Amino acid sequence: MSHIPSTARPSWSSRVAVGVRLFVERIFLRRKLDQVVRTLGGHIYFQTLTAAVRLDLFTRLTEKGPMTRGEIANELGLEEKPIRILLLGLVALGFLRKRGNRYAPESLATRLFSRSSPDNITAIVEWQHFINYRALYHFESAIRANRNVGLEEFPGTEPTLYERLAHAPELEDIFQRAMQAISRQANDWLARYVDFSDVQLLVDVGGGNGANIVRLARANPTLRALVFDSPSVCEIARANIASEKLEDRLDAVAGNCFVDPFPAGVDCILFCHFFTIWSEDRNRELLRKAHAALPPGGTVMLFNMMQDDDETGPLTAAMGSPYFLTLATGEGMLYTWSEYETWVREAGFSAVYRRAFARNHGAIIGVK
Ligand SMILES: C[S@@+](CC[C@H](N)C(=O)[O-])C[C@H]1O[C@@H](n2cnc3c(N)ncnc32)[C@H](O)[C@@H]1O
After folding, report:
1. For 204-232, how does the pLDDT look when each residue is reduced to its tens digit (9 = 90+)?
2. Residues with CB under 6 A from ligand 1
3. Which residues in the chain show pLDDT less than 70?
């Protein structure tokens, strides 16, 4: 029998103490500890996902079937050691599963991260990576200064991300593709579950690349609609409208909604993922301006993710709000349902409705 030195022989009492501690951690604290690890390593886990998306790993595994580590490295033309580290992260995070020595994507990962899936959110991953990730390093400074300190990461002198993106067409394109991915499902709900049959001319304020009005026009054959956005974004919107062959009913009008009047003759003003950008005061100002511009019976519609009225979540509101403070404008956040309703009423709209959709999205509709 080999001799074990006394320093390596734990006492009975210390073995019991360690055993109790392990038992408590495994049984009672596991979920909470996992939550701490996921938060502490959030930046690393996000980069693990980003690397896999940028290497198109989910698409390749979805299309070619399960592969071994060596086959994956070969397929990507990369060394096996770093691929091993990447695969460890993806399996631990639950994006891939390992059966024997082969790796395959979990079904949710296929749906969300394989570029061949119609529901993929790879554009959102790229937006988070190329635009938000650097900026959010400055969250603490933004809290202290109460302004969007993270904007300093981007060239230009303008006060909002939207204006600065005009200096960087590549980033503007990444941004607009992400907005389209966020809106794709959301505007589908809007088109399906909100009645636009009485609307003659709709303006989508901050309507981006036109994805919303294209979807609404497809669902409502007589609807005419406009995007109202900055000149560079209107160019993107016009190109999309043309490629959808909807120029006879859709167009884009360049303007700044705080300075320029809304386009004339509209009877529905839509603010889609827009009120989260601005302060309470600016949102109230926009609602008063919308009320003044609409004819009697006209409607204003706010559509975005909502914060719970009791201010306890959801996680999507907790994730989105720091972005608006630290980067986008320094003044917005995801407000609660009841804040929006109060502002719409205060602006003079008589009937105010609330409609809830999936994934914490909702619409507030006010009728003049
Ligand atoms: C968060 S994106 C939302 C895009 C689109 N509404 C959607 O749902 O996907 C905000 C949009 O508002 C535009 N925007 C920002 N400030 C604006 C202003 N003052 N007037 C008009 N558009 C503005 C930006 O260019 C951008 O396209």
Report:
1. 999 999 999 999 999 999 999 999 999 99
2. 162, 179, 183, 206-208, 212, 228-230, 233, 256-258, 272-274
3. 1-8
Question: What is the per-residue DSSP string for 86-102?
Answer: HHHHHHHTTSEEEETTE
Burial of 40 (0-12, 13-18, 19+ CB in 10 A): exposed
H/E segment holding residue 355? strand 351-356
Pocket test for ligand 1, best of 203, 212, 229 (most atoms within 8 A of CB): 229
Q: Are 255 and 228 in contact (CB under 8 A)?
A: yes
Structural domains of the chain, ranges and CATH numbers in brackets: 12-113 (1.10.10.10), 124-367 (3.40.50.150)
Per-residue pLDDT at 4: 66
One-letter amino acid identity for 298?
A: G
Q: Give the CB-side neighbour count of residue 194, counting CA atoms within 13 A.
A: 28
Model pTM score: 0.89
Cα–Cα nearest to 326, from 98, 204, 153: 153
What residue owns the CA closest to ligand 1's atom 12?
206
Q: Which residue has the CA at smallest separation from atom 27 of ligand 1?
A: 208
